[in-house]
Amino acid sequence: MHDCIAYQVLQHAAESIKLLSIDFNMRSLQREMDLAACLTGHLPDQMPQYKASKVRNERAIAQLNENRQGSLLDFIEDFCNWQRIEEFRQIAFESRAADIAQALMGSHQVRLFHDHVLVKEPGTRQPTPWHQDQVYWPLETDDTVTMWMPLVRVPAEVGGMDFVDETWTRRNLSDLVIGDSSHAHFADLIRRNGWSTSTYGPFEPGDATFHRGWTLHSAPANETDQMRSVITVIYYADGTKIGADDHPARQLDLALWLGGAKPGELADRNPLLWHESWSG
After folding, report:
1. What is the rounded average pLDDT for all residues in the chain?
2. Which has the least CB within 10 A, 46, 95, 106, 264?
């Protein structure tokens, strides 16, 4: 990362993108960046296409998850939609999101880890549990960014995103994966340490947040009568090596999303989304 980051975010975004809020200042950027930015108007011209694909995708993932058990994980999800739904491929490969991820990481090249659709159903009283994304990823780097983008309007009563400030600098806080246990553990950790949090929202379709892989975060319940559908896209710096597969979650992600690579090998089998030579 470097000091011209705010300028680069605006440079790489369309004129319609308005920078709402930044969780860092220019002097403390390198040590304090948790939530890179909350952007509006990220992909407004293409959202009707995404809404159409969202409907198709929700039907498919509802069938996949119809037998799930009730807990704090009361949402439906699907992965790697870019491989079979053109509109989601456009988000991952053709939007400006990879440019922004590159600017935030300061890397020379950016690769796609995977995308992830999350649908929080109407009447969901439980929040999304506190968790760190990167506990799942067998990647030997801290240069990772998750983009979170709603596919529908997310008013304040539906809930946006909650982040625990500066937690990415503390790296792995626990090997607990997302669930009831992680929520209780991290809620207690936040309380005992007096850590501050930042909340972002409401959102319009195409708005986006970007956060580090180790940033501790959650999302509120959805007690309204509407679906809350979002897509996340995860990016990592090219040149990253496969890390240790010393956790069941990391073993699974290694098998599913990294093309059968082995620990210690380069994580270079995933699609390259941004290269410094492409910027002209």
Report:
1. 76
2. 264
